[in-house]
Design the sequence.
């Protein structure tokens, strides 16, 4: 089946620290991969996406590379800011379906 | 551009009462999704529509839940009767079929439901 597994939180980092949030997936078809971010009290919004193997999605200093060989799409940022505090969701969608499959979310808190 | 609009943002009700949540998708979007978010279960897909037609309602927890989409610009999620375990944040999301099948989901800000 289709599913996404992401690292358990919560994650607490100091400002300017390096961030990695792991995400792995299983898919019956050829998926597109996404990272969504949810700020407190808000809905989810797309952070970045990648549509094929070896693609790198990037936005706001965040990056993730679609690794087909390891079925992974890990989220990274070189220097986090307090404003990055949020919940991050990894998700996939396969070409043959309409559903998005979301991970359980990883809460990130960045302290000054 | 207006995003996905949900109402009410917050709803507090007593067990047994009927609850109706509303959603206006982004104009031109032909897919509409209802999700429920709780701490215990994360983000769950309840039902989705394509061109106003329900396609998959297998995530609807039980008969107390129903959803409708009478036209392309409006959908409702109804819970009758409500129970405390229905307390959650309910999100509506929409998407447009495009030449690229990777079309992203756009989420509303959610309706936080508390059933006492």
Sequence:
């Amino acid at each position: 089946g289709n599913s996404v597994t992401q690292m358990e939180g919560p994650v607490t980092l100091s400002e300017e620290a390096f961030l990695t949030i792991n995400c792995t997936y299983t898919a019956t078809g050829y998926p597109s991969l996404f990272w969504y971010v949810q700020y407190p009290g808000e809905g989810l919004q797309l952070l970045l996406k990648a549509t094929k193997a070896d693609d790198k999605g990037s936005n706001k200093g965040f990056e993730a590379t679609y690794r087909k060989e390891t079925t992974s799409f890990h989220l990274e940022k070189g220097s986090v800011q307090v404003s990055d505090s949020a919940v991050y969701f990894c998700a996939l969608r396969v070409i043959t379906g309409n559903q998005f499959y979301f991970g359980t979310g990883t809460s990130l808190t960045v302290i000054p | 551009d207006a995003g996905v609009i949900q109402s009410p943002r917050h709803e507090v009700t007593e067990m047994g009462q009927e609850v109706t949540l509303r959603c206006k998708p982004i104009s031109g979007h032909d897919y509409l999704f209802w999700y429920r978010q709780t701490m215990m279960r994360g983000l769950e897909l309840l039902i989705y529509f394509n061109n106003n037609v329900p396609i998959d309602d297998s995530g609807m927890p039980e008969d107390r839940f129903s959803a409708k989409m009478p036209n392309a610009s409006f959908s409702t999620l109804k819970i009758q009767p409500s129970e405390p375990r229905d307390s959650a944040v309910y999100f509506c999301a929409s998407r447009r079929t495009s030449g690229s099948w990777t079309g992203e989901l756009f989420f509303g800000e959610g309706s936080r439901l508390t059933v006492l």
Summary: The radius of gyration of chain A is 13 Å.
